[in-house]
Every structure is written in structure tokens, then in C-alpha cells.
């Protein structure tokens, strides 16, 4: 969905490096989410945000942090990357009054 | 707590034959249910959504799903598979007004010519 963009689309990094993944949306939604996808596990929620001042941990937040710089931007950081954080990361958005989330194209992160 | 089980991790069909992807869920509340599709190297696209208005839900690309409360199932079907249907499909249950999505493990569909 071109309304939700993620950068970079692919990233290879080394253990111990700091990494930031960025998400931008033009849907005007106030709620934004970060997920990771691992084979056979579906998507699992890392963090979510209802607005710029409201950040919440998801089920697997350890080792991650987020920043909501503006309503349209939500960044995910790995302070010190480790190999088991190798995964496909998705950003999603949701507007008020609906329970449908809209996903970005994903960022494939490899930690060596 | 909610959970989603997709009963088949892989499904192989011939082009032009029906597709059935099975999904069972558990939820403490009256959930919303979704099917998303993920084509290779693409993001997740919403196929269809159930929100208690009608038990048979029609989605995009000829897919439909039937909600059966007694069986806690939300199976996805398509009468005639097309090569472009080759993808991974996720059944998803939503609670807490959309803040908590629980994903099934996914079903990868292979379509043979």
C-alpha cells in the first residue's frame, strides 16, 4: 500500500550496530504499529502508538525502542542489533472508528 | 486471550480448481476477523473482513469467507484458483477495537499450471 512507506526495504548489518527503521504514512491515521514477521509465527507486535505522546509496548518489545516524531512518522530502533532480530519488519496504521490496519511493504533486516 | 490456528501451513492446488484455507480462532469477545494476503516481497493486503454484519463475507479477487460461530471457524475459499493467487495468507483476529491483532502462522498457497 503506497500510503504506508518503509525505509530501507532491505538492510544487512552486524551484531552490536544501532539500526533505525522508518515508517511514514499519508493516510492521516493516528494509530501506528510495528510488527516483526518470522516464518511460521505470523506477525507479532513490537510497539504501537495512539498519537505522538502515546507509546505502548507490544508483546515482544525487549531490544527495541520507538519514536513517534509526528503523526505521520513512526521509527523503530534496535539499539544493539543481535542475530535473532533478523526478520521482516512491518509498519501498520489504523484510523479511529475502524479496526482495520493497513500495512507497509516491509523491511527485511539481516543481522550477521 | 485470543488465538488463531491455520490448519495447513502449505496448500497446493491446480489452476482452475477450488481453494480452501482453514482457520480456527478463539476469543473471549465478539471478534473482528480478517484475511490478509502477502505476495512475495510485498506487504500485507487486506482480502476481507468480518465484523458481525453477515456471516458470508466477500472479498477482493473472488475470495470469500464464512464465519461459523459454533465451529469458531473462518475459512477462506475461492471457486477457481488463478496463478496470481500464489502467495501466503494470514487469518487474523482483532480485539480491543483493533489494537490487538493476533495472526495465524500463515498458509502458503502454491498454484500449479
How would you explain this protein's 3D organization?
The complex is a heterodimer of chains A (112) and B (113). Chain A has no helices and eleven strands. By secondary structure, chain A is an all-beta fold. In chain A, the strands form two sheets. In chain A, strands 2, 4, 5, 6, 9, 10 and 11 form a seven-stranded mixed beta sheet that branches. A four-stranded antiparallel beta sheet of chain A has the order 1-3-8-7, with no helix packed on it. In chain A, a hairpin with a 2-residue loop joins strand 5 and strand 6 (54-57). Chain A is globular. Chain B has 113 residues and is mainly beta. Helices cover 0% and strands 56% of the residues of chain B. The model of chain B has no long low-confidence stretch (mean pLDDT 91). The A-B interface holds A 1, 4, 31, 40-45, 48, 90, 94, 98-106 and B 4, 9, 32, 34, 36, 42-46, 49, 51, 90, 92, 94, 97-106.
Amino acid at each position: 500500500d503506497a500510503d504506508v512507506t518503509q525505509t530501507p526495504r532491505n538492510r544487512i548489518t552486524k551484531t552490536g550496530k544501532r539500526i533505525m527503521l522508518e515508517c511514514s504514512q499519508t493516510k492521516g491515521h493516528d494509530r501506528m504499529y510495528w510488527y516483526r514477521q518470522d516464518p511460521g509465527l505470523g506477525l507479532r507486535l513490537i510497539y504501537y502508538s495512539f498519537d505522538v505522546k502515546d507509546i505502548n509496548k507490544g508483546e515482544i518489545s525487549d531490544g527495541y525502542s520507538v519514536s513517534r516524531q509526528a503523526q505521520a512518522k513512526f521509527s523503530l530502533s534496535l539499539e544493539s542489533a543481535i542475530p535473532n532480530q533478523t526478520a521482516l519488519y512491518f509498519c501498520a496504521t489504523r484510523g479511529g472508528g475502524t479496526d482495520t490496519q493497513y500495512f507497509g511493504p516491509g523491511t527485511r533486516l539481516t543481522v550477521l | 486471550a485470543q488465538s488463531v490456528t491455520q490448519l495447513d501451513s502449505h496448500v497446493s492446488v491446480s489452476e482452475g480448481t477450488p481453494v480452501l484455507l482453514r482457520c480456527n480462532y478463539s476469543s473471549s469477545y465478539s471478534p473482528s476477523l480478517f484475511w490478509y494476503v502477502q505476495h512475495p516481497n510485498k506487504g500485507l493486503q487486506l482480502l476481507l473482513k468480518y465484523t458481525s454484519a453477515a456471516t458470508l463475507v466477500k472479498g477482493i479477487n473472488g475470495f470469500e469467507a464464512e464465519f461459523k460461530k459454533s465451529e469458531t471457524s473462518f475459512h477462506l475459499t475461492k471457486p477457481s484458483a488463478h496463478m496470481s493467487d500464489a502467495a501466503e495468507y494470514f487469518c487474523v483476529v482483532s480485539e480491543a477495537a483493533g489494537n490487538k491483532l493476533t495472526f495465524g502462522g500463515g498458509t502458503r498457497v502454491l498454484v500449479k499450471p
